TrEMBL record:
Lineage of source species: Bacteria, Bacillati, Bacillota, Bacilli, Lactobacillales
Domain PTS EIIA type-2, first and last residues per copy: 471-619
Annotated keywords: Repeat, Transcription, Transcription regulation
Presence of keyword Transmembrane helix: no
Record-given protein name: PRD domain-containing protein
Domain PRD: 273-379
Keyword Cell membrane: no
Record-level GO BP terms: regulation of DNA-templated transcription
Protein species of origin: Loigolactobacillus coryniformis
Origin: domain of life: Bacteria
SUPFAM superfamilies on file: Phoshotransferase/anion transport protein, PTS-regulatory domain, PRD, Winged helix' DNA-binding domain
Gene3D superfamilies xrefs: Mannitol-specific EII, Chain A, PRD domain, Winged helix-like DNA-binding domain superfamily/Winged helix DNA-binding domain
PROSITE patterns the record matches: PRD_2 (PS51372), PTS_EIIA_TYPE_2 (PS51094)
Length: 619
């Protein structure tokens, strides 16, 4: 199994199932190539598991959980040969670290049995990897190349993350250190942490073997581990091997793997002190959020919920460790405001810590911000009113209310309307009206729904959502445009044209296009089922959500996905709870279009001279 297959396997380990279209887009391959890759992967994991397909989605069926655990620990990497690009890069790093002075590129190419052009490609890839470690490869004519690091403590991290798994045999431990390490590991309940500590100890032993002096001070890091007798014995064993005592800074560095998640090995008092210090980080995040977007948040309650995650996020980032990918980028796509707040928070932390934070961390912070936004909304929510017209008894009304509450997931007030003349009065307060017969509402545009539609849950949800969208438009909380588009050269050019036209009309801020370009670097805005949702903060004074639906007269091909609809969304800088709820409704509306083929077809054949209610015709 090469690294390409290993990465593909990891996707199935962290996901319940993955749509075919998503795999094709993320791997940037054809369906035929995907099937070949999956067939090869199934050969490699024979007896451990099998990738299966059902209803257009692939999933991993596990047979041998212990075998899968060994695969995840990376033990196979050492068995790879130099046909694997990443193993060649690991070898190059190891040579640069162990060689005094420069490494001759011709010698590297000969040892790896590759051409100079292949070596050049490997070095280009390696240079991109080294950026994360504040390191670079410096070349000098007639000498060769060498490794230069801005911060010395990044060297063991580089070996830990990029080299060790390929060349573990080069990092032996003495029996005394092994015994002391085993005693410490017995106190660690998490296997990943114990394995990482073992690898780090082996790497430090390797680096100290030649009396190499490394400054291991890490800014913003405080060791939170309780130094038990077992830890002290490990430090003594390492000191004896090194023939000099470990400094306090070196001891702290050895402990860092245990500082990446909460456990009983951490000192409660030290953790509490660090949480208090991190209040300053929260204030910096709050100030930056207020610069970019005005949103109602209970920051004190938010910090209560996020403080532990924030602490370990900072520590993971300082040591170039990524969080496990429990959530996918779909979280960021589905919660745009929370995602924007998360990205602002990450940018603030990066500047404060002087570290590069992986984009996977954005998904976790998005979840915390969304929970905080929801909490404020729940406190300020007003029940929606639903009218009932017809010969409907009290028991049926209670049942109707119960069913609506399940569908609507909200507070519902059901009002019986006995006087039909009342229906023609302007500005009726009803979200929708249930009836057992057609009704004349005059100029009111409130949806009238047959009572038997109450049991068609998906269709009912769509009609409710569209009613809320119309209500937001009438309240001038949302500015909606639906237009037909002629595709440009590619997806970005098409969206850029939409943005430029809206900017000329004063509906989007001049900064919107550049902000969207930056936002797109965090993750693609193209979804399944032929839609794209480019969005970011709209830095204009008007507290109005801008939504333009572009219907492409000819579909665009984006990452092997066809795009028929573009929903261009401008999120106002001043975002109160009313607008936040409208934004949630717009997202529900967009995804109801995706879920229901009839609604999608109605939108693709939209009549520009007819009201938006035409979307629910015939569903």
């Amino acid at each position: 199994m090469d690294n390409q297959d290993y990465r593909l396997l990891k996707r199935f380990i962290t996901r319940e199932s993955i749509p075919v279209a998503e795999l094709i887009a993320s791997e940037n391959i054809s369906q035929k190539t995907l099937q070949k890759r999956l067939a090869k992967l199934n050969e490699n994991i024979h007896g451990i598991g099998q990738i299966k397909e059902r209803h257009g989605r692939y999933f991993l069926q596990v047979i041998d959980y212990h075998g899968l655990s060994r695969l995840q620990s990376g033990y196979l990497r050492e068995s790879l040969d130099f046909n694997d690009s990443e193993k060649r890069q690991a070898y190059i790093i190891q040579q640069l670290v162990t060689t005094t002075g420069y490494v001759v590129q011709d010698d590297l190419a000969d040892t790896l049995m590759i051409s100079r052009s292949t070596l050049s490609k490997d070095l280009d890839k390696l240079r991109r990897t080294l950026c994360v470690y504040d390191a670079e490869i410096v070349a000098q004519s007639n000498h060769g190349i060498k490794l230069v690091l801005d911060q010395a403590y990044q060297l063991p991290l580089l070996l830990l993350n990029e080299v060790y798994d390929y060349f573990a045999a080069n990092y032996p431990l003495t029996p005394a250190v092994q015994q002391a390490l085993a005693a410490v590991s017995n106190q660690i309940n998490d296997q990943t942490t114990a394995t990482r500590l073992q690898k780090l100890t082996a790497i430090m032993s390797f680096l100290w073997r030649d009396d190499r002096q490394i400054d291991l001070h890490v800014a913003h890091y405080q060791n939170l581990v309780r130094l038990t007798p077992e830890w002290q014995q490990l430090f003594r064993a390492l000191s004896a091997q090194r023939q000099t005592n470990l400094t306090a800074t070196e001891q702290d560095f050895i402990c860092f793997p245990v500082n990446l998640k909460y456990s009983s090995l951490l000192s409660r008092s030290l953790v509490a002190q660090q949480l208090d210090k991190n209040q300053a980080l929260l204030q910096q995040i709050k100030r930056q959020i207020e610069v970019h977007v005005q949103v109602e948040l209970d920051y004190a309650e938010f910090y209560t919920q996020v403080k532990y995650h924030l602490l370990f996020l900072c520590y993971r980032s300082l040591f170039n460790m990524s969080a496990s990918e429990i959530f996918t980028n779909e979280i960021i796509k589905n919660y745009p405001v929370a995602a924007e707040l998360a990205l602002i928070a990450l940018n603030t932390l990066e500047q404060g810590l002087g570290a590069i934070i992986p984009t996977t961390e954005a998904t976790y912070l998005t979840v915390y911000f969304q929970l905080a936004l929801d909490a404020v909304q729940d406190q300020q929510h007003v029940a929606q009113q639903v009218g009932i017209v017809g010969n409907i008894g009290l028991g049926a009304q209670h049942f109707l209310k119960k069913q609506l509450a399940e569908v609507f997931a909200d507070q519902i007030k059901v009002v019986a309307i006995t006087d039909k003349a009342q229906l023609k009065q302007p500005d009726l307060p009803f979200l929708l009206i249930f009836s057992d017969q057609p009704l004349d509402l005059g100029d009111n545009r409130i949806p009238v729904i047959r009572i038997d539609d109450l049991f068609r849950t998906e269709e009912l949800t769509t009609k409710i959502t569209l009613s809320l969208v119309h209500k937001a438009i009438m309240a001038q909380a949302c500015h909606l445009q639906i237009t037909y588009l002629t595709p440009q050269a590619d997806y970005q050019a098409t969206v850029d044209q939409m943005i430029e036209q809206a900017t000329l009309k004063g509906e989007l801020a001049p900064s919107f296009k550049q902000m969207w370009h930056q936002r797109e670097l965090q993750g693609s805005s193209v979804f399944e089922n032929a839609i794209a949702l480019p969005h970011t903060i709209n830095e204009i004074a008007k507290p109005v959500i801008f939504l333009q639906i572009g219907i492409l007269q000819k579909p665009l091909l984006v990452n092997k996905r066809k795009v028929h609809l573009i929903f261009l969304l401008g999120i106002p800088q001043q975002l109160n709870q009313q607008l936040n709820r409208v934004l949630d409704t717009l997202y529900d509306f967009i995804f109801s279009v995706v879920r229901q083929e009839n609604v999608l077809q109605n939108l693709l054949h939209y009549r520009l001279d007819q009201p938006i209610e035409q979307l629910t015709e015939g569903i």
